[in-house]
Amino acid sequence: MARFSTDASIQALNEIVISGGGLAGLSLAIGLRRAGVEVVLHEAGEYPRHRVCGEFISGISTEALERIGIMECLKDARQRFSFSWHRGDQALRHGRLPRPALAISRYRLDDRLQSLARDLGVDLQASSRLRDRPHEPGFIKASGRIPTRGPWIGLKAHVRGLKTSAELEMHTGHNGYLGITEVEDGWFNVCGLFRNDRGLNARHGDLLIEHVRRNGSHALARSLQQASWREGSFCAVAGFELGAQNRLPGVLCLGDSHAIIPPFTGNGMSMAFEAVDLALPELVSYAFGQVDWAVAVASIEKSFANAFHARLAASRCIHPALFSSCSRLLFKHLPLKPVLKLIR
Predict the structure, then answer these.
(1) ∠ CA 137-140-143 to the nearest 5 degrees?
(2) Which residues are CB-contacts of 309 (< 8 A; sequence separation ≥ 6)?
(3) In a 3-state reduction of DSSP, which class is residue 6?
(4) What is the percent of the chain where pLDDT is above 70?
(5) Which residue segments constitute the domains of the chain, with CATH numbers given?
(6) In terms of pTM, does the model score above 0.90?
(7) Count of alpha carbons within 13 angstroms of residue 227, beta-carbon side
């Protein structure tokens, strides 16, 4: 159940405009509408579609999802308990997560969220790219990464026919890492982060396979070549930096527009939902004229700093170790619970 209950006779004074209809934008729009706030959401693309994403939700509580009002969209998400880590073709470790994670494709989840948002009365304008509006009260940027000349490329596809050793399988190497988990209908989400090699002579799915092979995971590359690939599921994103993103003056940024946590943490989707949960009370107060926009933004950004600074710093420190040769020892012997506490 969402946390807000407003008198139907009292109308919000201020409209909220959101740029970007991904997890953060859609979830925020839903939470605001449940509180009686008028919302206009602009999304540059169409629904449903595939996105580069680990499709693995770990670290967010059921209570937070219920407060936002989106738990119904995750009702059949698959619970994930077991994990395995691999370096190249060598299995390093098997274990179980302290708390189960949820797996669901963005293709399915985003479509459910946008349908719910429309049902609740969000003015959702697809195929609409909105320019940033610095210092404009009520404007929120949730349109994803801020393009830079960063060194990374993210690659993702859905495949069938893989045999995995755990419900979440992680593969690391000198050039990147990749996660595999089954999402729905027998499809496995294969999503990786690699150092972008613009000299590779490969396209589409072959680009993912070649990055996996060059990362030392030859057996996995062969398995991907023999697997069935879901039509239209391959996607790529390049040119971004990890960590806090460049801020726009006077603009509240949510989700990847605020910060991109290294994906090995499995915490990116959860952070988007957590940010919405933190932001909703102040945004509702602003919408009903109880607080000034600048005061609301300052309060929300302080909440973000308190909630996310430590895990972003910890993940940034651990991230380089994933590419080193000593990672074999690291992943064999590193205690799991303390590390998860640092990065979630």
Answers:
(1) 155
(2) none
(3) coil
(4) 92
(5) 16-148+240-343 (3.50.50.60)
(6) yes
(7) 26
